[in-house]
Amino acid sequence: xxxxxxxxxxTRDVRVNLQVAEWVKDFADNKDINAEFEIVDIxxxxxxxxxxxxxxxxxxxxxxTEEQSIWSRKIDSFxxxxxxxxxxxxxxxxxxxxxxxxxxEEWHHKAAGIVSYGSTLGIAASLALRTxxxxxxxxxVEPQGAFSLxxxxxxxxxxxxxxxxxxxxxxxxxxxxxxxxxxxxxRKEKSFA
Length: 193
Prior knowledge:
Keywords: Oxidoreductase. It comes from Oceanobacillus locisalsi. The structure is a single chain. With 193 residues, this protein is an alpha/beta fold. It has one domain (2-192): 3-Layer(aba) Sandwich (Rossmann fold). The protein is built from 5 helices and 8 strands, in the order E-H-E-H-E-H-E-H-E-E-E-E-H. The protein has helices at residues 17-29, 66-76, 94-101, 123-135, 166-192, and strands at 2-8, 35-40, 80-86, 110-118, 138-140, 145-148, 153-154, 158-159. Strands 1, 2, 3, 4, 5 and 6 form a 6-stranded parallel β-sheet that branches. A two-stranded antiparallel ribbon has the order 7-8. Helix 4 links the parallel strand 4 (110-118) and strand 5. The longest helix has 27 residues, at 166-192. The chain is globular.
């Protein structure tokens, strides 16, 4: 079965990020699709700011802390991802960037979808995240979830997405699962190279 990690993008105490991730998981779990979805909350990872002497972790696993090793195994266990990111200053949060930077090959040859939100739907954050993910050899699907703080949140605090998003969001889930399943063969071929 194809495993998809739903990765939160914020660690702030006042975040709405986890609400969005939980909605994504519930939506995905209710689709008739051959995949397993799991929320991966970066706030619970135990990792701090990325401040390693030799990036990424794949080059110095023997020096990894317990938290880094756990993060490595967790990400390696997935076939694909859905990143849930807010937009801060036209970019995705530094906490998410740090969590991406801790690893290397664990991300390679997997697929991802992006769910963004903000005052302008988080579009700038999603574009920045796509660039970073491409450098990590992650193939991002075109359909994405993009939510407005003004229309999809009650008082900018409680996530209540409009129904209009569901068809496009369903396409994103389908594409993430299809691409993630297909890329398993690429990873298998690379492991024998």
